[in-house]
Fold each of these.
Amino acid sequence: MNSRMLGKTGLSVSEIGFGAWGLGGSLWGPISDGESRAVLRNAFEHGITFVDTALAYGDGTSEKRVGDAVREFGGRITVATKIPPMNWEWPASPGIPLDRVFPGYWIEKCVRESLKNLGVGTLDLIQLHVYDPGWLADPEFLAPLERLKASGEIRFMGISINDHEPDTALDLVRSDRIDSVQVIFNLFDQSPLENLFGACREHDVGVIVRVPLDEGGLSGALNEKTRFDKGDFRHAYFRGNRLGDTVKRAGVLETVSRSEGMSLPEMAVRFCLSPEAVSTVIPGMRKSAHVSLNAGYSGKPKLSPGLLEKLSKHAWERNFYQ
Ligand SMILES: NC(=O)c1ccc[n+]([C@@H]2O[C@H](COP(=O)([O-])OP(=O)(O)OC[C@H]3O[C@@H](n4cnc5c(N)ncnc54)[C@H](OP(=O)(O)O)[C@@H]3O)[C@@H](O)[C@H]2O)c1
């Protein structure tokens, strides 16, 4: 497993990280404590040293499971978690005042809850789960996090950028006030290549790539007949024609991947590892077999410039989160 630096934090993290949304046991269907423990242990044994979770994932369930597994494993694992918006709205409505979403008392309350769930005295990396660029001008923005840093309750801080809007974080990245950004980057949404990654390189801000497999759209496992339970978030994500459109495009990409001697998920994950700016790619995983596959994609040669050029033609602008 290759490691990369998380911006200027001094933290070295595995280039394949673990996305722990699915371990919340709610929006991706049920998963037991035992299954979660097994999949996390498999990840740590494969050299994965970075986990992304959030207080909102199953109301602390994902954090608790991650905390338990890290303690049981005993090795050094960097855990990033997130503070949910107080109004519980994803994404942040453009222009919404900061104090309606992240007032200081809410930030402190959530950080203390996450510390308890994870069973630690300090959070390695805390991320705001939504972001609006208007907050940069508010003197209270990040001030509560600075105080928590001073008291030793958090080490580093970052934001999770709203879906498909990488450029909304550019001014913040250039302000040198955060340590990391988390952003959607995959074969369909290649937009962070335009401006965000360059700015992150220039300012040495860590980049956590989320949704590398388009919520399963690039996993090679979906077809027109795939159905999701009503409670599963993908029921809405792939509703109507979306599933068929995705399967069609994924099929074309699979032909490309096969001609290059790899599976579609391998090409999708290795595509995400290509930019120098990327610190870690965090596929969501609930199956140990997926952990083993994804861990195996690390350390392989970078995709060739010719293939990256070919893949740039497969970018697909849409927002299935709406
Ligand atoms: N707003 C935010 O901050 C935000 C939003 C979304 C996600 N995230 C973070 O990003 C992480 C990743 O995103 P995601 O989980 O939503 O979507 P994703 O990583 O694009 O896709 C996850 C899906 O891919 C499957 N999969 C994983 N590896 C595979 C492989 N090698 N071959 C075939 N299928 C594979 C998983 O299956 P199994 O689960 O069955 O193993 C799961 O169904 C999340 O877990 C979360 O930590 C953050």
Note: The chain has one domain: 3-215+256-307.
Amino acid sequence: MKKLIPVLVGFLCICNSHAIMGQAFSGPVLRKIVIDPGHGGRDPGALSPDRKLREKDINLAVALYLGQEIKTHYPNIDVVYTRDKDVAVDLDKRGTMASELHADLFISIHVNSARKSTTVAVGPETWVFGGDRSQRKDDSYDVVLKENEVIKFEEDYKTKYEGFDPDNPQSMIVFNFQKEAIMRQSRILGSCIQQALREGPLRGSAKDRGMKEGGFVVLAYCSMPAVLVEMGFINSATDRRILGSADGQKKIAKQLFLGFENYMKTYAENGKYKEQKIGIKKASITTYHVQIAASKTVLPSTHTVLKSYPSIKHIICEDHIYKCKYFLGDFINAVEAQNYCDELRAGSHPDAFVIAIKDGRLVPVNP
Ligand SMILES: [Zn+2]
């Protein structure tokens, strides 16, 4: 991957007529970022066991440090907060605000908590909007339910979120309208941020909690690449020491900044994610996915696999008998794809395996 970076940056310099000379780099230009400190006001978010440490305060502190870091290094980028003090903001307003402001990126900041007091969970995880795992009811899906259920604090939530029941993940499907181009950029942003967080003070355990997809209401309203970060666990004493100190919060913000910067310099695509091509040819990168099925012909939309996974994709390899390969997930590194693969194998796809795609064809996973 490393050797591709100069090629990509060089190419974009030539093609990008909007490049502003004199900036720290001359890759794609991001003009506006919306930072969303989760919860606030009457909604404290997750609480420490002694209830003294509140998620809403940690989120706000880290968000402000992150914004400051971006303003210091990139004064041309406009940083907007969904809240910069302890007030309640409805979930739909957060995403809608970013969309109305024509923001280029949206980062929602949260702190995790394990529902079961026996679970010793630690470390960061990063989420993007997606439906791949909407069928799952495991521990990690709990995060989606927990972050969505704050809409119950909103008085008119039943009419506002037309038919969405925060206790029923299946009803999330009505929100599943993000464009594929945006979802793809979100996954890349999520990978960059998760990687940077893992190198910061909240490393987590040896097994990376990774980048995941879930039906978050706050992300569903975003029309730009958007991620939701769960920095660490408030009920883990290890994580709490870092989350609860100003020094720890600054260090986490620094890692978020590095993840953002890596994405912006290397992977961000120009333009407002319009349907039409905008004349910028993407440099070819290898992406990693998990194949769960293959068939001789394209499966009908009524097939169980397609119904279970509305966002499943396929690639056609004409020289194979089972030429249609159906796969889930979209990662820029093989390790993350393997983590996702392990989860699928442990569940209903024991035969799942990682594949790599470059320029629209299968390539060896470890060349
Ligand atoms: Zn939260």
Note: The CA atoms of residues 142 and 228 lie 14 Å apart.
